[in-house]
Write a structure and sequence with these properties.
394 residues; alpha/beta; Rossmann fold; 6-stranded mixed β-sheet; 4-stranded parallel β-sheet; 13 helices
């Protein structure tokens, strides 16, 4: 991965929704200045969501998503509509594309109400405005455009940029935990599960933020950790480790030095850390036959000692002393209802948007299912969860 590339999970996701033949794909192409989506007068040309990560002025790095028409028909059409609705979980800003000649349909109004109920910022783009006798005055959340003629496109992008500015998060991974010149040690094991030739995304993002802060950063493997600590004139302010090495690292780092993991940092950054900590308590109360969902936000080649499908199930059964039933999902897969599961254990969510991670947590809340994440669960099972949270209380 290019370290200068903004990760998809950190880019605002802008979804284009609406009925068939409202001109969604034409508008996406006009906004991006690219032939991103196939355009045709035939209804239902867009059959699956089309995603594109790109730089878009004046917005900056974004992910643009073109979705199937929400009035698609038949069994296959229903599946396409469901896929489009699933995109809402990843969307930060919604563009509702409406045929200006036809006006808002009942489905359009239903979708608008869905945006409002989810507190999702939106713009209604009345497309094909060039076919109107006179163009009405645009409102704060509405604009009249013509993808065919290019009119109103600049103004639409300016509205999108304004919404993004309103939503811009000042959340940081650890900028409130360390300061300039603080010594921070990162433990990044290079083993068979590490990606060849690069660091995993949470490590990259943490290193970048530490550089921006001006902290002094040492990056080591477990075998070099003790030597790194001993080489410093003063103890480091913080040690951050890969979750899989938590137990070994905790034995090396003296009690007076704060210790946490990349996964716990991302639990706070992308989700709700107190909720995930509470979910970790469920590990000690599991029963024989309980179903546990282990979910990863990305897809990758499974290794023989994969943490999600091999290590975590083993650790959880050993810790709980119970025989459990495990289900695994990855990427965009996540059940709409988690009620069948006694516990959900999620990855750090580095490849997911904050909105999508919180949406998954909300599904668990509505189903009454405890949820935790990899780092929090591992710290709990190794008896170091309380210590790993001390850094947030300083």
């Amino acid at each position: 991965m290019n370290l200068n590339t903004v990760p998809s999970g950190e880019r605002p996701h802008i979804g284009f929704f609406g009925m068939r033949n409202a001109g969604k794909s034409s508008l996406v192409n006009a906004v991006t200045g690219q032939r991103l989506s196939l355009v045709s007068s035939v209804k239902g040309t867009t059959t699956d969501p089309v995603k594109k990560a790109m730089e878009l002025l004046p917005l900056g790095p974004v992910v643009i998503i073109d979705t199937p028409g929400l009035d698609d028909e038949g069994a296959l059409g229903e599946m396409r509509v469901e896929r489009a609705r699933q995109i809402l979980a990843t969307t930060d800003i919604a563009i509702l594309v409406v045929d200006a000649q036809k006006g808002m349909s009942p489905q359009d109004n239903e979708l608008k109400e869905l945006f409002i109920s989810r507190k999702l910022p939106y713009i209604i783009a009345f497309n094909k405005a060039d076919l109107l006798g006179s163009v009405p005055q645009s409102k704060a959340d509405e604009i009249y455009v013509s993808a065919e003629k290019g009119s109103g496109i600049k103004e639409l992008k300016e509205k999108m940029a304004a919404l993004m500015s309103d939503r811009k998060s000042e959340k940081k991974i650890l900028a409130d935990l360390v300061a300039r010149d603080d010594r921070v040690i990162l433990v990044t094991p290079i083993d068979e599960s590490a990606p060849k030739g690069r660091l995993i995304l949470p490590q990259q993002q943490t290193i970048r933020e530490l550089l921006e802060i001006g902290a002094v950063t040492l990056i080591v493997q477990v075998s070099e950790l003790k030597g790194a600590i001993d080489s410093l004139k003063e103890p480091p302010k913080l040690v951050i480790t890969d979750s899989q090495a938590f137990e070994s690292v905790a034995k090396i780092v003296p009690e007076g030095i704060m210790l946490t993991s990349f996964s716990i940092l991302f639990a706070r950054y992308k989700g709700d850390l107190p909720c995930l900590v509470n979910g970790a308590n469920k590990l000690r109360h599991l029963k024989d036959g309980d179903k546990v969902l282990i979910s990863e936000g990305c897809t990758h080649h499974r290794q023989c000692k994969d943490i999600g499908t091999v290590k975590l199930p083993g650790w959880i059964e050993k810790y709980s002393g119970k025989k459990l039933s495990f289900t695994f999902t990855s990427g965009g897969e996540f059940p709409a209802d988690t009620g069948d599961f006694a516990l959900v254990v999620h990855c750090g969510g580095c490849m997911l948007t904050e909105n999508e991670m919180k949406n998954r947590m909300e599904k668990c809340r509505l189903s009454g299912t405890p949820i935790t994440n990899y780092g929090t669960a591992i710290a709990e099972m190794h008896g170091i969860l309380e210590r790993s949270l001390e850094v947030f209380n300083k």
